[in-house]
Amino acid sequence: MSCAVHEIPRHLDKYLPCLRGNSPDISAVRSPRLLLLARPGDARRAIQEALAEAHVVHEAVARVSDARDVLTRAPHNGILFEVSTLLHADPYDRACAQEWALRYPSARLRFDPRTGGLRLIPLAPFGNGDASVAEFVARDCRPFPARRWRIARRPSAVLPVLLCEGGAAGYLDAMTDASTARRTLTTDLTEGGCFLLLNDPPASNTRVALIVPDLEEPAPILGTVRWSREWGVSGALPGAGVRFDDLGALQRKRIRALVGVAPPA
Q1: Measured CA angle at 109 (ends 146, 84), to 5 deg
Q2: How many CB atoms lie within 10 A of CB 27?
Q3: pLDDT digits over 65-101, tens only?
Q4: Section 141-149 average pLDDT
Q5: Is residue 194 part of a domain?
Q6: CB contact set of 37 (below 8 Å; sequence gap of 6+)
């Protein structure tokens, strides 16, 4: 793996006033740590200059596989994706990047080689609307607790799902009229919930029942929509984040088997 760590120089008088007798919380002056996914070139240099101006510590990598290693090794507060680097990634790597964008404050950065300018677009669900690098870091990344990416808890396969709105009542309706169930899929399944890919997702707080054929379990999984994203928002995949309200012992066991999580000892 090849990556570069860039520690922004700090002047003690500016960043550590506690040495002069004042004692603010050191976390208030510590810069958040970001991951930059960008191939070497003019775009990467321009982004790193903007990060330096914002006094942001970051690690720069050129490949999604390297980004995965960095995220699992050290906690980060956000991720920046250079657009052309994502466009040249294969579909599986782009799917990985999409999963990260659902768990970290993230933004796409587009470099204009004619002007040397950058356009930053924060990705939902953490942020919306264009912003400067400094604004994105201050608004979205600094308040976000740094976290590591967990290893081997996502299935690599796309899993089909039948979505019944209305919770248990919606599931009963689908048993008598199959047309009331919506066909969708998830690539992001855990014991706590899942992401459903939908062009027209249910609204937040909607009760749902999910049937996942790969679980080989006839009982539906009951859950609640925690957030939804319409098609065309910030260039991210449309869909809904569902929190599972309760899982049966067999459902939990089979989800663990699907996502590669060992059962507790």
Answers
A1: 115
A2: 7
A3: 889 889 988 999 999 999 999 988 887 788 888 888 8
A4: 89
A5: yes
A6: 61, 62, 64, 67, 79, 80, 81, 82, 85, 86, 97
**In this structure, what is the dihedral angle of CA atoms 253, 186, 224, 245, given to the nearest 10 degrees?**
0
Structural domains of the chain, count: 2
The whole-angstrom separation of Cα 80 and Cα 56 is 12
Which CATH number fits the domain that encloses residue 213?
2.40.10.220
Boundary of a domain, candidates 109, 141, 173:
141
Kindly state whether residues 75 and 182 are assigned to the same domain: no
As a whole number of angstroms, the distance between CA 258 and CA 253 comes to 9
Is 46 among the domain residues? yes
Q: Is the CB of residue 99 less than 8 Å from the CB of residue 158?
A: no
pLDDT for 229 beyond 70: yes
pLDDT band at 233, cuts 50/70/90? low
Residue ranges making up the domain that contains 90 = 3-141
| Dihedral angle sign, alpha carbons of residues 17, 22, 26, 27 | negative
Q: Across the chain, what does the average pLDDT equal? A: 80
CATH code at position 70: 3.40.50
The answer to whether residue 152 is domain-embedded is: no
Strands 78-82 and 182-186: unpaired
